[in-house]
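TICKET: design request
STATUS: open
ATTACHED STRUCTURE:
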């Protein structure tokens, strides 16, 4: 029998309205028949529609990680509320009677099986063939353009620093915005986005200390210097193809294809992931909405990130991701180059309910020495090109609250870390700790985000999720 969870059904929905409408169909008993195949891998039934005849909906799990949804309704959403309703009905324990599979579904299944067989044969042939090499001349030409773009960016940065950030005015910002647009002609979307971010920061800090702007200037300077050295070494090596071992490729703007990552061995098979936190935010520099999830890999204890970018112009056509409470069983996990919290992706996967053993594995992965944690974090933050907000899982032996209402966590060795919000993230979480009973903040695991605050000269530690023996409390949403 299929193991359908509510979280899994939610992830398949094109939007929140589809979830609401599908649940409404089940609650209002709109399904006049609910059936399943003898093998249990096909759900089908009839749902009342606006007309005299109902809609025939089906959810085919012949390939569990690639379900096929079909419906006779005219909806352009995929899957529609009727097929989603079948999943919610199964999850809620509605009775599905065993019935012969309708002939039209049998025919469609057979055609789908033939297409899948043909696809697998083609993949096997492609795997046997040598990968096509990108034109060396084209790559060399692209690198030459990128080097020119970095030179242009360096001149802009030098002029900006020589004049001083305090002299910035509307005319300067307008000129920088035009120059940022021009960087798009040099195959440098990464530096282009970072320059846009600098412009936004200078606008926000006008008349202030420009602490965050200077941090961004330092980042751009390092990107120019290291990026130029990296590109020149690729040219000198005679192999100008992107280096899968370097984070600089993505920082300069290379978009890794899954086939590339697999070809370079940047994958892991049969991985199980548990999501520990999720949030979404508006990245004005990239002009995209970003869906960000933090996941723990159960067998290694590593914390990864999933990132989905939804450009402003196409956002309404891309399903927004959301929190996920089940375990993801990924057939193949794709790993991007990186240090702490590497970015990952997965395509073919199945859900399963979390068990006590999963959360025991999560809590065992929590770091127990804060001095070691701070050493790891500071080593990362020394690199101006590294992620400025690394996330780690900490064991909290005790949570203390000062008379001023400040929360402090302590490890087993007595080392303490004060908790505080990270201002430039825009979402506070510390105040939510007051809603949690004090005894539930002792001997727990805490997912925390770190950030060096350049305007205050200190390291901030922000709580994201509290993980106890019998409960998980997400503070970030």
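STATUS: resolved
RESOLUTION: sequence designed for all positions
ATTACHED SEQUENCE:
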């Amino acid at each position: 029998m299929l193991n359908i969870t509510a979280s899994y059904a939610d992830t398949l929905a094109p939007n929140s309205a589809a979830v609401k409408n599908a649940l409404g169909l089940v609650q209002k008993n709109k399904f006049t028949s609910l059936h399943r195949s003898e093998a249990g891998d096909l759900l089908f039934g009839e749902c009342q529609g606006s007309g005299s005849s109902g809609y025939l909906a089906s959810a085919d799990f012949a390939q569990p990680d690639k379900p096929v949804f079909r419906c006779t309704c005219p909806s352009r959403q995929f899957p529609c509320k009727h097929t989603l309703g079948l999943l919610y009905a199964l999850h809620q324990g509605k009775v599905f009677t065993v019935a012969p599979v309708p002939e039209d579904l049998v025919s469609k299944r057979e055609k789908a099986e033939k297409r899948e067989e043909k696809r697998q044969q083609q993949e096997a042939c492609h795997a046997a063939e040598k990968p096509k090499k990108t034109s060396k001349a084209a790559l060399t030409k692209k690198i030459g353009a990128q080097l020119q773009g970095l030179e242009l960016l360096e001149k802009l940065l030098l002029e900006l620093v020589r004049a001083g950030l305090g002299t910035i005015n509307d005319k300067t910002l307008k000129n920088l915005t035009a120059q940022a647009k021009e960087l798009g002609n040099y195959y440098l979307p990464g530096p282009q986005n970072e320059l846009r971010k600098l412009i936004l920061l200078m606008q926000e800090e006008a008349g202030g200390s420009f602490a965050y702007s200077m941090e961004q200037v330092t980042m751009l300077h390092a990107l120019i210097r290291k990026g130029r050295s990296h590109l020149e070494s690729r040219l000198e090596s005679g192999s100008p193809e992107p280096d899968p071992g370097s984070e600089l490729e993505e920082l300069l703007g290379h978009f890794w294809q899954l086939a590339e990552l697999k070809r370079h061995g940047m994958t892991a098979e049969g991985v199980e992931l548990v999501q520990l936190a999720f949030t979404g935010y508006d990245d004005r520099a990239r002009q995209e909405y970003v869906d960000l999830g933090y996941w723990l890999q159960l067998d290694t204890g590593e914390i990864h990130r999933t990132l989905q970018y939804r450009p402003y112009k196409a956002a309404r056509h891309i399903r927004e991701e959301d929190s996920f409470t089940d375990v993801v069983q990924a057939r193949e996990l794709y790993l991007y180059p990186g240090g702490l919290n590497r970015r990952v992706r997965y395509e073919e996967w199945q859900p399963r309910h979390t068990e006590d053993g999963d959360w025991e594995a999560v809590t065992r992965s929590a770091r127990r020495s804060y001095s070691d944690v701070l050493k790891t974090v500071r080593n990362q933050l020394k690199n101006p090109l590294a992620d400025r907000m690394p996330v780690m899982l900490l064991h909290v032996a005790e949570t203390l609250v000062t008379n001023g209402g400040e929360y402090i966590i302590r490890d087993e060795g007595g080392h303490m870390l004060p908790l505080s919000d990270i201002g430039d993230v825009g979402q506070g979480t510390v105040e939510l700790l007051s809603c949690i009973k004090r005894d539930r903040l002792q001997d727990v695991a805490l997912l925390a985000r770190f950030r060096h605050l350049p305007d205050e000269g200190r390291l901030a530690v922000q709580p994201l999720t509290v993980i106890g023996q019998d409960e998980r409390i997400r503070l970030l949403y």
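CLOSING REMARK: The chain is about 35% helix and 25% strand. The mean pLDDT is 90.
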